């Protein structure tokens, strides 16, 4: 099947949201690599699409003729936007993907990037609220060395046309919450809510994305490897045809997205996960201790030691798949798994001894209340267990960064 003819629908990728490197994409098709792939996510944009494709093609033909593609990713719009796209046969660079099962702006963009053949990946809304002419300025930012070029409403020359006070307040409010939760991510650009940008493919290759809702740029900033960022000011235009699909749901998804990123990024996020797993271990420890003591009638020390070991095994399993999952997935096989388990066990056992020593020191030497001493010991040992395990048990070996 020659997918170069505009009428063909592109196959919809499935599974995790990982952008593959170009060689992988090109190995599945006889097509050649391109310099730029622009994704146009659509839901009920049948009346806008032709005008957008015409304007964008005219602009990109002026600098990238024959070296770019437009990929419309439509979520089976009730107004048959995907069919309208297929009928735009004058544009050989136009491709169409029709998603049936999946829905959502961010995931639509990534599905498009997964089949794209461009070295640079972009996204633009289909409703002409993002002025197409800005594409050339964004492109020159990339040519100038930027790894990510963002169209911003909050730099010189930027703004919004017809937003109500409420929407302005909500947008700025959302940005502020983002700055509090993810300063190192949200603070890197002036308009983290922008849905109009382009990024070098290599910044995203093989980095699992996990988007939610509308804010694809935040996902790119959070999980991509992006040294240089360029911004271009633009005025967010009034929508002429159709209406925005933004509802309160998108605001809830935004908060969920921030929390999800917060939990998964950097050491703080990893430490939070490690602590949650540690907490679950307390319940396992108590439950097994109860069963061994009361159901099997085992001795105190044996029950305590066995239940602690079962809890440690529980903690190891969860930490290996969740807390350090992004590392352990690069250390496959039973041998490495067992090595990690033994190290984890050894470190936590040392932690246990440290715990007992600390309680005695705080209670007997500093005269601190025994329960306060116990809590301080638990907190200190949790940090010890986390750090030493991060450095030893889930030591980053050959992960391609
Ligand atoms: N495939 C797909 N699936 N596309 C969608 C979906 C969906 O579920 N929901 C919306 N889209 C498409 C729309 O058809 C449009 O092309 C684009 O995504 C943006 O949707 P709008 O509903 O028009 O969003 P907006 O104008 O309110 O907000 C836009 O601009 C903001 C400012 O840059 C979005 O890009 C926001 O993310 C952005 O913050
Ligand atoms: Mn819009």
TrEMBL record:
<dbReference type="InterPro" id="IPR007267">
    <property type="entry name" value="GtrA_DPMS_TM"/>
</dbReference>
<keyword id="KW-0464">Manganese</keyword>
<keyword id="KW-0328">Glycosyltransferase</keyword>
<keyword id="KW-0472">Membrane</keyword>
<dbReference type="Pfam" id="PF04138">
    <property type="entry name" value="GtrA_DPMS_TM"/>
</dbReference>
<keyword id="KW-0479">Metal-binding</keyword>
<dbReference type="GO" id="GO:0004582">
    <property type="term" value="F:dolichyl-phosphate beta-D-mannosyltransferase activity"/>
</dbReference>
<dbReference type="InterPro" id="IPR029044">
    <property type="entry name" value="Nucleotide-diphossugar_trans"/>
</dbReference>
<dbReference type="GO" id="GO:0035269">
    <property type="term" value="P:protein O-linked glycosylation via mannose"/>
</dbReference>
<feature type="transmembrane region" description="Helical">
    <location>
        <begin position="271"/>
        <end position="292"/>
    </location>
</feature>
<feature type="domain" description="GtrA/DPMS transmembrane">
    <location>
        <begin position="273"/>
        <end position="393"/>
    </location>
</feature>
<comment type="similarity">
    <text>Belongs to the glycosyltransferase 2 family.</text>
</comment>
<dbReference type="GO" id="GO:0016020">
    <property type="term" value="C:membrane"/>
</dbReference>
<dbReference type="InterPro" id="IPR001173">
    <property type="entry name" value="Glyco_trans_2-like"/>
</dbReference>
<dbReference type="Pfam" id="PF00535">
    <property type="entry name" value="Glycos_transf_2"/>
</dbReference>
<feature type="domain" description="Glycosyltransferase 2-like">
    <location>
        <begin position="37"/>
        <end position="197"/>
    </location>
</feature>
<keyword id="KW-1133">Transmembrane helix</keyword>
<feature type="transmembrane region" description="Helical">
    <location>
        <begin position="298"/>
        <end position="318"/>
    </location>
</feature>
<dbReference type="GO" id="GO:0012505">
    <property type="term" value="C:endomembrane system"/>
</dbReference>
<keyword id="KW-0460">Magnesium</keyword>
<dbReference type="GO" id="GO:0006488">
    <property type="term" value="P:dolichol-linked oligosaccharide biosynthetic process"/>
</dbReference>
<dbReference type="InterPro" id="IPR039528">
    <property type="entry name" value="DPM1-like"/>
</dbReference>
<feature type="transmembrane region" description="Helical">
    <location>
        <begin position="371"/>
        <end position="390"/>
    </location>
</feature>
<dbReference type="GO" id="GO:0046872">
    <property type="term" value="F:metal ion binding"/>
</dbReference>
<keyword id="KW-0808">Transferase</keyword>
<comment type="pathway">
    <text>Protein modification; protein glycosylation.</text>
</comment>
<feature type="transmembrane region" description="Helical">
    <location>
        <begin position="344"/>
        <end position="365"/>
    </location>
</feature>
<comment type="function">
    <text>Transfers mannose from GDP-mannose to dolichol monophosphate to form dolichol phosphate mannose (Dol-P-Man) which is the mannosyl donor in pathways leading to N-glycosylation, glycosyl phosphatidylinositol membrane anchoring, and O-mannosylation of proteins.</text>
</comment>
<dbReference type="GO" id="GO:0000271">
    <property type="term" value="P:polysaccharide biosynthetic process"/>
</dbReference>
<keyword id="KW-0812">Transmembrane</keyword>
<protein>
    <recommendedName>
        <fullName>Dolichol-phosphate mannosyltransferase</fullName>
        <ecNumber>2.4.1.83</ecNumber>
    </recommendedName>
</protein>
<dbReference type="GO" id="GO:0006506">
    <property type="term" value="P:GPI anchor biosynthetic process"/>
</dbReference>
């Amino acid at each position: 099947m020659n997918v170069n003819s505009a009428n063909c629908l592109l196959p919809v990728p499935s599974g995790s949201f990982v952008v593959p490197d170009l060689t992988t994409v090109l190995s599945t098709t006889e097509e050649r690599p391109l310099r730029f792939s622009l994704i146009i996510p659509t839901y009920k944009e049948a009346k806008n699409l032709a005008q957008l494709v015409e304007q964008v093609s005219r602009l990109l033909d002026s600098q990238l003729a024959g070296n770019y593609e437009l990929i419309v990713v439509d979520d089976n719009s009730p107004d048959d936007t995907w069919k309208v796209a297929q009928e735009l046969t004058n544009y050989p660079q136009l491709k169409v993907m029709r998603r049936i099962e999946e829905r959502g702006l961010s995931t639509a963009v990534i599905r498009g990037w997964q089949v794209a053949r461009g070295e640079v990946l972009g996204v633009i809304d289909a409703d002409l609220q993002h002025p197409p002419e800005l594409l050339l300025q964004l492109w020159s930012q990339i040519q100038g060395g930027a790894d990510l070029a963002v169209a911003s409403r909050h730099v010189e020359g930027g703004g919004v046309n017809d937003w109500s006070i409420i929407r302005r307040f909500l947008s700025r409010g959302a940005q502020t919450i983002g700055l509090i939760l993810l300063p190192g991510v949200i603070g890197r650009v002036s308009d983290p809510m922008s849905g109009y940008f382009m990024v070098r493919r290599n910044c995203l290759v093989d980095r699992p994305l996990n988007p939610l809702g509308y804010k694809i740029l935040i996902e790119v900033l959070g999980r991509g490897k992006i040294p240089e960022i360029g911004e271009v000011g633009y005025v967010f235009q009034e929508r002429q045809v159709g209406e925005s699909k933004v509802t309160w749901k998108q605001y809830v998804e935004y908060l969920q997205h921030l929390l999800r990123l917060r939990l998964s990024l950097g050491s703080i996020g990893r430490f939070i996960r490690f602590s949650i797993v540690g907490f679950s271990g307390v319940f396992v420890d108590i439950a097994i201790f109860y069963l061994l003591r009361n159901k099997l009638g085992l001795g105190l020390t044996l029950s305590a030691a066995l239940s602690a070991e079962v809890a440690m095994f529980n903690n190891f399993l969860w930490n290996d798949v969740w807390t350090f999952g992004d590392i352990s997935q690069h250390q496959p096989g039973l041998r490495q798994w067992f090595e990690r388990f033994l190290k984890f066990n050894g470190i936590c056992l040392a932690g246990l001894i440290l715990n007992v020593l600390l309680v005695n020191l705080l209670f007997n030497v500093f005269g601190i209340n025994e329960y306060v001493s116990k809590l301080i010991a638990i907190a200190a040992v949790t940090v010890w267990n986390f750090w030493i395990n991060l450095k030893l048990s889930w030591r980053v070996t050959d992960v391609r960064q």
